[in-house]
């Protein structure tokens, strides 16, 4: 953020009393309350979709979320002299959701279920993106894994991390292929690939994690909807659960508690539960480690990479136990669909 970005505030019908730097943004105290100016890399169609969703959530009045503040000319996106886009949004000074407090984690899941009841747009809304396909995403990840596996096998002198990664590769590579092939068998039947029911298209937050769940004096406030997209709502539930379960060593009791909290507000259909199972079963954390390694400089590999890999391998038994215990009836449900 720079002085040119601050000058963009002159394009808004607001009176700014103070500005300060936030995380990759400028926090502004104004006559309309606390606002935040952030760089925006998406296009005009995407921000229009985001604005429609946020307005719809606000109209429902169930939960508090950020809202986009339009400029004087009504535009949602303003640009500096270099063509870099910025968006001004409402903001709440507060703390992030405490991931070590189970009651707050359950509350975050309840908020998510309530959010999903407001995240729908008419099917004829202009500029709607295509529904997300988990199967296509898995296939893309698998191609990347295959490429890195080949690279590691052909590489001469290897670091300790590369040796460890190669030793673990076949197990997770086979797991990734198995989950992908099994998911594809049901791809045409799932709600995730349908992306809509009736005249509405269901959206997800796209990045629902504790960093974007804030607690202030007036309650909870959800932010950063830039990654919203049409998909089965379990996408958000999966992301939050995976993050929390990795930190909780794939606790069966925690996972069951989170699922129960969500379903208390919004029961999952049989196919959505299957969808959630496959998203959790796919070794995405391993893919993330591999992807970060392959696309970063390899002259020096951070020790943190080795720690993440060792933790992933150490937790695999607990993860499989969690999936077996919490989703033991998935096969039965699939046979009934």
How would you characterize this protein structure?
The protein is an alpha+beta fold and 337 residues long. Strands 1, 2, 3, 5, 6 and 7 form a six-stranded antiparallel β-sheet that branches. The chain has helices at residues 3-7, 44-60, 102-116, 134-154, 160-186, 191-194, 234-247, 252-265, 270-281, 284-294, 303-326, 330-336, and strands spanning 16-22, 25-30, 33-40, 64-65, 68-69, 78-79, 85-90, 95-96, 120-122, 196-197, 200-204, 213-216, 219-222, 229-230. 51% of the residues lie in helices and 16% in strands. The protein starts with a helix and ends with a helix. Mean pLDDT is 90; it is low at 191-197. The chain contains twelve helices and 14 strands.
Write the SSE topology.
Blueprint: H1 3-7, E1 16-22, E2 25-30, E3 33-40, H2 44-60, E4 64-65, E5 68-69, E6 78-79, E7 85-90, E8 95-96, H3 102-116, E9 120-122, H4 134-154, H5 160-186, H6 191-194, E10 196-197, E11 200-204, E12 213-216, E13 219-222, E14 229-230, H7 234-247, H8 252-265, H9 270-281, H10 284-294, H11 303-326, H12 330-336
Parallel strand pairs: 4-13
Antiparallel strand pairs: 1-2, 2-3, 3-7, 5-7, 6-7, 8-12, 9-11, 10-11, 11-14, 12-13
Helix pairs in contact: 3-8, 4-5, 4-10, 5-11, 7-9, 10-11
């Amino acid at each position: 953020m720079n002085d040119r970005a601050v000058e963009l505030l002159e394009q808004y019908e607001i009176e700014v009393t103070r500005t300060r730097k936030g995380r990759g943004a400028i926090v502004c105290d104004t006559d309309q309350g606390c606002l935040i100016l952030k760089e925006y890399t998406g296009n005009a169609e995407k921000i229009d979709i985001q604005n429609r969703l946020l307005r719809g959530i606000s109209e429902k009045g169930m939960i508090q979320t950020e809202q986009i503040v339009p400029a004087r000319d009504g535009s949602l996106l303003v640009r500096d002299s270099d063509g870099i886009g910025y968006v001004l949004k409402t903001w709440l000074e507060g703390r992030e959701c405490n991931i070590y407090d189970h009651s707050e984690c359950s509350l975050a899941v309840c908020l998510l279920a309530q959010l999903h009841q407001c995240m729908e747009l008419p099917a004829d809304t202009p500029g709607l993106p295509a529904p997300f396909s988990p199967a296509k995403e898995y296939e893309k990840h698998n191609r990347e894994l295959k490429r890195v596996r080949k690279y590691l096998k052909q590489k001469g002198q290897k670091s300790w991390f590369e040796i460890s990664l190669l030793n673990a590769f076949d197990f997770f590579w086979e797991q990734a292929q198995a989950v992908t092939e099994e998911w594809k068998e049901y791809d045409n039947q799932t709600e995730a690939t349908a992306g809509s029911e009736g005249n509405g298209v269901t959206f997800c937050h796209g990045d629902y994690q504790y960093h974007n769940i804030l607690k202030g004096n007036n309650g909870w406030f959800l932010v950063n909807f830039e990654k919203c997209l049409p998909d089965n709502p379990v996408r958000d539930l999966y992301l939050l659960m995976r993050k929390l379960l990795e930190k909780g060593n794939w606790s069966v009791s925690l996972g069951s508690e989170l699922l129960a909290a969500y379903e208390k507000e919004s029961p999952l259909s049989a196919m959505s539960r299957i969808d959630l199972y496959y998203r959790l079963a796919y070794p995405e954390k391993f893919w993330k480690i591999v992807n970060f390694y392959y696309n970063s400089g390899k002259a020096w590999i951070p020790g943190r990479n080795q720690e993440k890999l060792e933790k992933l391998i150490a937790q695999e038994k607990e993860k499989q136990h969690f999936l077996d215990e919490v989703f033991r009836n998935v096969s039965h449900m699939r046979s009934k669909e």
